[in-house]
Design goal:
Layout lengths: L2 H7 L26 H16 L5 H13 L3 H4 L30 E6 L2 E4 L4 E2 L2 E7 L2 E5 L4 E2 L3 E9 L2 E6 L4 E9 L2 E4 L11 E9 L2 E6 L8 H9 L2
Parallel strand pairs: 1-4, 2-5, 3-6, 4-7, 5-8, 7-11, 8-12, 9-11, 10-12
Helix pairs in contact: 2-3
Length: about 230
Amino acid sequence: MDLDKHDSADPGRGRPQRPVASAAPADPAAAIRASDADRDRTADILREALAEGRLDAEEHAERIDAVYRAKTVGELEPIVRDLPVGRSPRREPASYDDGPGAAGPAENLVAVFSSSTRKGRWRVGARTQAFSLFGNIEIDLTEAMFGQRLTVINATSIFGNVEVRVPENISLRGSGTGVFGNFEVVTLEAADPEAPVVVVNGYSVFGNVEAKPKRGKRIADLHDRLRKHLGH
């Protein structure tokens, strides 16, 4: 048999075949819809990176905007991939003890070149995330119904404004930083040890975060209302 002739007739015969590259299976976890808690954890990482100087204000603003637009977990991961804890997001401990009442999903208030207001007769959740970018957010708790003793508000203001108003007969505490901006919480301690406690944490960059009691506004049936909501 003429091997040369046979090989020329079938060029592919006798040659090693290249394996066909198979597509890498997509990570099923990346397709999971992002929860509010997932977005909160990612925002906490960005907040720490800004405080450490790893991100400047403009980069932080761009990434925060992407966080609150993300629909899946896979869209959140690249936002913090180049940061120290980007591959294993963790929640920073709160400045005050959150306690059992702060568990559960947070309410998100976002104002980007716009305004957002929460006031009137409404039930306050245990946690609220307020983010303002060239916008204004007003949170008025003077007529709100507290379903738990502790309410935590995490406020971020970048070239914007976040204002929190509370009744005079509850406790108000806070911890935060202003970077070329203002972060001010007027500390208030209620006479009633069972009164609601509102904690405002966060920071402002070229912006304003302010929390203080509203003069003349009080919860009239404070003790009875707490006993009813807390089941005492």
